[in-house]
Write a structure and sequence with these properties.
Number of strands: 11
Shape: globular
Number of domains: 2
Number of helices: 10
Order of helices and strands: HEEEHEEEHHEHHEEEEHHHH
Strand content: 15-25%
CATH class of the largest domain: Alpha Beta
Strand order of the largest sheet: 1-2-3-5-4
Largest sheet: 5 strands, antiparallel
Distance between the termini: 46 Å
Length: 299
C-alpha cells in the first residue's frame, strides 16, 4: 500500500487532527486510526483476498445504516474504506449475551433483505458457499494442507457422503442463501449512540444465513464459558429465528452442523492467500476450527 497516497485520499474526506496510526496489520487487511475533531474515523486497506469487502460494506450501509459500519468513503479499485466510529466492541463489556439478544434479530432482518441482492454480491466477488457449492468446497478442504492429525483427516474423508446429504437436506428447508458474516463475534459487534452495529465484513460469503451463529456461539462457549446446554443458547437461537418464522429449530440444528464445515472451508481460502511465513500463526487458530468440525462427524 502506498502510505502517502492513502493519507492523501483520507484527507479528501476528513481532516485529521493528529497522526494517522496503524492499529492492525494483517496479511488480509491493514486498519489505521484517524483522529478527527470530536472523535475518530478508521481507514481500512483490504488485501486481494478480501477485495469484495469495500463494495459489500458500502452496499450494506446504504441499505442498513442503523446496523452496520458507517461508510464515509470507498475506493473499490484500491480496496480502501473510510469508516465512522462504531463505538465500543461488546467484547470490552465482557461479551454479554444480552447484547446478542438485541443484535441477532436485526442482523437476521438484514440477511432476509439481502437475499434480493445475492446475484449482485456474487458478481462482485463475495465468496460462494451456497449449498450447491459446499460439497466441492469440502473436497477442496480434504485436498488442502491442514493442521490436523491423519486420523482426523480420514474421519473427514469418510464423512463426505453424509456431509453432501446434509447439504441437500438443508437446501430443501426453504431458507435461501444470503450474506453470511462468518466472523460474528464480540470484536465485531459494536455499541455506540444507542445502536448495535456489525463491523468487519471481510470474511463474508453467500451461504445459508444460519451459519452465522457458529462463530457467535463458539465465542460464548470459549470466552464466556457457557456450557453447551446453557439456556442462553436456545434463547439466542429463538431470538435470531423469530424474523424467519416458526418451526425452524431442526433446520437451525442442521445448519449449525453444516456451518462448522463451511466455516473451515472458508478458512482454507484465507490460508491459501497467505505468505508461507504467516501460516504457522494462522494454523494455530485454524486447528481449533478444524477440530470443532471433526467433532460434528461424531453426532
Amino acid at each position: 500500500m502506498d502510505v502517502i497516497a492513502a493519507e492523501d485520499w483520507i484527507r479528501k474526506y476528513v481532516e485529521p487532527v493528529g497522526s494517522i496510526e496503524a492499529t492492525h496489520i494483517r496479511p488480509w487487511a491493514t486498519v489505521k486510526r484517524v483522529p478527527v475533531a470530536g472523535g475518530v474515523t478508521w481507514f481500512k486497506a483490504c488485501a486481494q483476498v478480501q477485495a469484495f469487502e469495500p463494495r459489500l460494506t458500502a452496499e450494506l450501509f446504504a441499505r442498513w445504516p442503523d446496523r452496520v459500519t458507517e461508510v464515509l468513503a470507498v475506493d473499490e479499485a484500491r480496496r480502501w474504506l473510510l469508516l465512522g466510529d462504531a463505538g465500543i466492541a461488546v467484547g470490552e463489556r465482557g461479551n454479554p449475551p444480552e447484547a446478542w439478544l438485541e443484535a441477532l434479530p436485526s442482523y437476521a432482518e438484514l440477511q432476509k433483505g439481502e437475499m434480493a441482492y445475492v446475484k449482485t454480491h456474487l458478481g462482485h466477488g463475495v465468496p460462494d458457499l451456497r449449498m450447491a457449492a459446499l460439497p466441492a468446497g469440502y473436497e477442496r478442504l480434504l485436498a488442502s494442507e491442514v493442521p490436523l492429525a491423519r486420523q482426523d483427516v480420514n474421519r473427514l474423508r469418510d464423512y463426505a457422503p453424509r456431509f453432501t446429504g446434509l447439504c441437500a437436506a438443508l437446501a430443501e428447508t426453504g431458507i435461501h442463501e444470503s450474506v453470511q458474516h462468518d466472523d460474528l463475534h464480540m470484536a465485531n459487534l459494536y455499541s455506540g449512540g444507542g445502536k448495535l452495529r456489525v463491523v468487519d465484513w471481510g470474511d463474508s460469503s453467500i451461504a445459508h444465513p444460519f451459519f452465522s451463529l457458529v462463530v457467535t456461539f463458539r465465542f460464548l462457549e470459549e470466552v464466556n464459558h457457557l456450557a453447551p446446554d446453557d439456556p442462553w443458547f436456545p434463547r439466542l437461537r429463538d431470538a435470531y429465528l423469530e424474523p424467519w418464522g416458526s418451526g425452524l429449530e431442526e433446520t437451525f440444528e442442521i445448519a449449525i452442523r453444516v456451518g462448522w464445515f463451511a466455516h473451515a472451508i472458508a478458512w482454507t481460502r484465507q490460508r491459501a492467500a497467505l505468505p508461507a511465513e504467516a501460516r504457522p500463526d494462522f494454523d494455530r487458530a485454524f486447528a481449533i476450527i478444524l477440530r470443532r468440525a471433526v467433532a460434528q462427524t461424531r453426532s
